[in-house]
Design a protein that fits this description.
- The protein is flat and about 125 Å long.
- The protein has 19 helices and 15 strands.
- The protein is of the alpha/beta class.
- A six-stranded antiparallel β-sheet has the order 2-1-4-5-6-7.
């Protein structure tokens, strides 16, 4: 659920920090005071598209921060793990900045993410319902998913089994179709892969081979220079017929200096330094001599290295920038070749496998259809009960099955919600039949049914009660109150009946300070709630009777809390 929201420079809000509790929080205020701006802020933190138009006039950027408790859902936690987002403390802190330069920065628990990832994260945190876009209700393509969610775990498990088979079916069908579409291209590709796999495989490359070969080649190519250098070192240090040994001369100096080492610390230090230098040069002479003895020029080996480096260079020119890239390409084409050869060797087997898979998919799709039809009847009854309590008792809700189609990702069913709001009018698609007020009630009916198992921690109703009044308003208030028992609810409303049932009440006000318009948010105590409800009931002119009515309305709304 949403615990805290901080807004800086969003529209007419300069700075606000709001804290939220569980159950139901209502936001009220005059039209244009900035209620929807707060909902926009939550939407931006949940992945809605942002733009420079949101930035407050005169500011360079807008900043938002939201703190959410994490839904207790294994799939959601797995998503966070996959994205590398730490969630050990059970909290998500989402920060989002939008700059006038167009830069959009988003961080989730300190990790930098893009809007696509933020949408995935926000999908299970917040569900925003608005008067003009009642989420899935106005999108017939989403109705099937809603029905499946209502049907429960058994159908979802069957659907998952179908989808696994379906993915295999699509891949297998594409393999067969591609092969049949162009046998010549298939054969050419097969021959090319076989040649490339043979060429790279016969080269028997090793990842660190090239650098080692180049090092060895350098030594062979500069044999004479290395030999001369080592010979010079050995002769200088050990001496020859023409010149005395440096080591012998140093030994004489050592003997002379050691004779005075006891006469002072400085002499002793000089003696130690000379001693160290002598023994270091002695080791150097021995090592140089050993290297000289081991040094051997092998012209055949040099030619062999040159040929090997040429082979490696040719492969790198064809298949990658270096040996690791060539080997990576080799693994890739080996896999492709293996799949193509298997397909080439077993065309009949593939067709038989596709036929068997089609049979299995057909059976699973039929099971899905039967399970959906059973769930549809149950949903229709449940929705009718809810609509009746919302004073739409004569309305008829139906899950319309448009007939089966070829295999799709979710089966063979096309489903759309139909409704008849008045007797004799006939059933029709929900999106074309209902008015705004009716749509609000249908949405609330479905939300009441789905709220307990949707897994969304916060549900926001943005003026979904527009166009209703009287007893319908009270019925809507009761439904939202019921939904708040399962999820945190934030609700923008102009109906006092809805405002009265909330556990928490925020008043949004707009005022002009100097030349700027600012929005403020106040958490109302009971007396202030009565005053706000009275304003909502009668407008500017508030009488004693209005306040009494408001007080009674609040008292009734808080019953059974």
């Amino acid at each position: 659920m949403l615990q805290e929201l901080t807004i800086d420079n969003l529209a007419i809000i300069e700075h606000q920090t709001l804290t939220f509790a569980d159950n139901m929080t209502v936001l009220t205020g005059e039209t244009g005071a900035g209620k929807s701006i707060i909902i926009d802020a939550v939407g931006l933190l949940a992945g809605s598209r942002g733009s420079q138009e949101y930035i407050r006039h005169g500011a360079d950027k807008l900043s938002l921060q939201g703190q959410f408790t994490i839904p207790k859902d294994d799939d959601y936690l797995a998503l966070l793990d996959q994205l590398g987002i730490n969630h050990d403390d059970g909290v998500l802190i989402i920060n989002r900045q939008i700059n006038r330069s167009g830069r959009n920065t988003i961080r989730v628990n300190g990790e930098l993410v893009n809007t696509t990832i933020l949408k995935k994260i926000g999908a299970n945190l917040v569900d925003i319902q608005g008067q003009n876009e009642h989420q899935q209700l106005l999108q017939p393509e989403k109705h099937l998913g809603m029905l499946d969610q209502f049907a429960g775990s058994k159908l979802l498990a069957l659907k998952s089994q179908y989808q696994e088979k379906y993915r295999h079916y699509v891949k297998l069908k594409k393999t067969i179709e591609n092969r049949q579409k162009n046998e010549q291209q298939w054969a050419q590709r097969l021959d090319m892969l076989r040649y490339q796999v043979k060429e790279i495989g016969e080269a028997d490359l090793h990842e660190d081979e090239e650098s080692q070969l180049k090092k060895e080649r350098e030594q062979l190519a500069h044999f004479q220079q290395i030999n001369t250098a080592l010979q010079t070192v050995v002769e200088a240090l050990n001496g020859n017929d023409e010149s005395p040994a440096v080591l012998d001369q140093l030994a004489t100096v050592m003997d002379t200096l050691s004779g005075v080492a006891n006469f002072g610390d400085d002499y002793a230090e000089m003696d130690r330094s000379l001693s160290d230098a002598y023994y270091s040069l002695q080791d150097l002479a021995d090592n140089a001599g050993h290297q000289l003895d081991m040094l051997e020029f092998d012209g055949d080996r040099l030619n062999e290295i040159d040929q090997r480096l040429t082979t490696i260079g040719t492969l790198e020119h064809k298949y990658g920038d270096d040996i690791p890239a060539v080997l990576k390409y080799y693994d890739k084409i080996q896999q492709e070749l293996s799949e193509m050869e298997a397909a080439a060797d077993s065309a009949d087997d593939l067709s038989a496998e596709l036929a068997e898979l089609t049979k299995q998919l057909t059976g699973l799709a039929e099971q899905l259809t039967r399970a959906r039809q059973a769930a549809a009847h149950n949903l229709e009854d449940r929705v009718h009960q809810q609509l009746k309590s919302l004073y739409m008792g004569k309305a008829q809700f139906k899950v319309h099955f448009a007939g089966s189609h070829d295999f799709g990702p979710d089966g063979c069913d096309e489903v759309e919600f139909y409704i008849q709001t008045n007797p004799g009018e006939g059933m029709g698609p929900l999106v074309k039949i209902v008015s705004g007020g009716e749509l609000s009630r249908v949405m609330l009916a479905l939300k009441t049914i789905f709220a307990a198992n949707e897994g969304v921690t916060s549900i926001i109703f943005d003026e979904v009660d527009t166009g209703v009044s009287g007893r319908v308003a009270q019925a809507i208030a009761d439904k939202i109150k019921g939904i708040a028992k399962h999820s945190q609810v934030l609700c923008i409303t102009h109906l006092p009946q809805v405002a009265a049932v909330a556990q928490h009440h925020l008043l949004i006000q707009k005022a002009v300070h100097g030349s700027r318009t600012l929005t403020s948010v106040t958490k109302l105590k009971p007396d202030a709630r009565v005053a706000e409800l009275a304003r909502m009931l009668s407008g500017e002119k508030i009488t004693k009777l209005t306040r009494e009515h408001a007080s009674e309305l609040l008292k009734m709304g808080q019953e059974d809390q």
